[in-house]
Amino acid sequence: MAAAPISLTVRRRAALAFLLVPPMAWLIIAYLGSLAVLLVSAFWTTDTFTDAVVHTLTTDNIVRVLSDPTFRAVALRTIGVALVVTACCIALAVPLALYMAKVASPRMRLALVVAVTTPLWASYLVKAYSWRIMLSGEGPLAWATGYTPGYGLTATVITLTYLWLPYMIIPVFAAFERVPDSLIDASSDLGASDASTLRMVVAPLVFPGIAAGSIFTFSLSLGDYIAVTIVGGPSQLIGNVIYEKLSTNQPLAGALSLIPLTAVILYLLAMRRTGALENV
Amino acid sequence: MLSSGARRAVTVWTVLVLVFLYAPMLLVVVNAFNKSRTFSFPPSGFTLRWWADTWNSTGMWTSLGNSVVVGLCATAIALVLGTMAAFAVQRYDFFGRNTVSFLVVLPITLPGIVTGIALNATFTSVLGVTLGLATVIVGHATFCIVIVFNNTQARLRRLGTHLDDASADLGATPWQTFRYVTFPMMRGALVASAILAFALSFDEIVVTTFTAGPTVQTLPIWIFGNLSRPNQAPVINVVAAVLTVFAIIPVWLAQRFGGDPATTRV
In which element (H, E) is residue B62 found? Predict the structure, then answer.
């Protein structure tokens, strides 16, 4: 590019600016701007009589979020649910992805990719609703087995696992596909059992895929409050509390939403430390 | 080579996970034809009565209309902005390129409730805008950009720049190259992006809840509001069944136009 005439590089720069400015302006103003407002609004307060937002700075909301035992219990419950859902998704996805990438024929593999992708595009609400029917006292599960966990945290974990499972399967499958067959063959030729091959050869190579998938399952579970409303019975997650507070005390809702935000950022940083995100 | 025992184990597991994925959806479709008003399994009989009731539901049609308007507007915005960002990242080398990719992906990486409440705080207590269809469109466009960006970027990377260079060498202006060379090769990816972005917007509920205000209902919000009304259950069942069957459409169309529904959403 160094040898190009000046006018050309100037024109190229102008073209780049033309391409870059509108999308960046939108994302910075509408999105980062809003996130900044969210951070600041957590330090605002409300008028005691009218519930209107008052723009005076105070740390009351943050202190309240950190010290209130109810909020702490809900926050811990939410993070617990997100971790359990992530673990369930990993347990379900890894053998399936192994089958897709290393056992299935190419034709079968393509069919399975479509089969695990299609549920992603089915309505979120309908999927959550289907588990409400599935787990109801007169539902198919109770009819077939005589047992149902009923509506509560277990039902919430099942439903969230169901909702986010494809987000785990796809990156894990992609990771398995990148593992060369020759490595697996070499390992078994050298006398390693399946378990040792999977643990010592395949697992380190697949880990980045699992980490990438877990970011989605963890983040999506943390922010979800609809599924728990549908199948959770009386149990509440942080999203419900935020939603509830929004109409009466918007700054407090803003302060509460910093909990899932912080949790996701910490999770992302932790994943980055493991080096898992570098080759995704 | 894995041992046959291990192969059999993962095969069985795959079948079980597929049952887990599809049984609830099958149940939703069956349930739409269930004769009894309250849910019970197995269904007590076959009826098409609820389909007629659904057809005559005004709330359903109004909210469906809103969803279509929001989906089309958000898709149009996302299509323009996402394509521009993809061209910039794929065709130019500049400082901060990774930051651009990161910024585009951020709205779907952070929990929806954070995005929703951030937009809500901005609209209501800073800008003083009344929540309505316009604010929903802004919210949806923000997280749809990434879909267009991912799809278009993948296509641009595969295309490379040889044909663009050839066109320029033959004396075409940048606009002519774009109009007659790049754009025709991109068309499939753009159509696929548009379909997938529309599908994502059509289904979104969390950001919508926080940006729609009390008066505007999109289809997911209407469904959610009616889930707690037992006498509306049969109508909801029918809408649920239709949406489940329609889920195949974006996947099928997007694949036909050369998009990748699998990697787009992940």
Answer: helix B58-91
Residue of chain A with shortest Cα separation from B101: A24
**Which domains can be identified in chain A, with CATH numbers?**
6-54 (no CATH), 69-273 (1.10.3720.10)
Helix or strand run (H / E) with residue B177: helix B174-177
Beta bridge partners of residue B46, listed in sequence order: B34
Whether the complex's predicted ipTM is more than 0.90 is answered with no
> Which of A70, A93, A63, A43 is closest to A216 using CA atoms?
A93
Let me know: does A107 contact A160? Beta carbons within 8 Å: no
What does the pLDDT read at residue A276? 62
Given a contact cutoff of 8 angstroms between Cβ atoms, the answer to whether B204 and A121 are in contact is: no
Rg (CA), chain B: 23
Interface of A with B in 160-179 (CB under 8 A): 162, 165-167, 170-171, 174
Of B106, B236, B247, the CB nearest to A122: B247
B26 vs B45: CA distance, rounded Å: 16
Do the Cβ atoms of B9 and A95 come within 8 Å? yes
CB contact under 8 A, A257 and B81: no
Residue B168: how many CA atoms within 13 Å on its side-chain side?
10
- List pLDDT tens digits, range A146-161: 888 889 999 999 999 9
Q: Which amino acid is at B80?
A: V
User: Residue B198 is part of which domain span?
Assistant: 57-264
User: Does residue B155 fall inside a structural domain?
Assistant: yes
The string of pLDDT tens digits covering residues A60-98 is 888 888 888 989 999 999 999 999 999 999 999 999 999
- pTM for the whole thing? 0.85
As given in the structure block, the two tokens for residue A148 are 């149902």
Q: Do A226 and B224 touch (CB under 8 A)?
A: yes
Q: How far apart are CA B42 and CA B93, in angstroms?
A: 61
Contact between chains at B266 and A216 (C-beta distance less than 8 A): yes
Q: What is the domain count for chain B? A: 1
Count other C-beta atoms under 10 Å from residue A191's C-beta.
Answer: 7
Is there a domain that residue B125 lies in?
yes
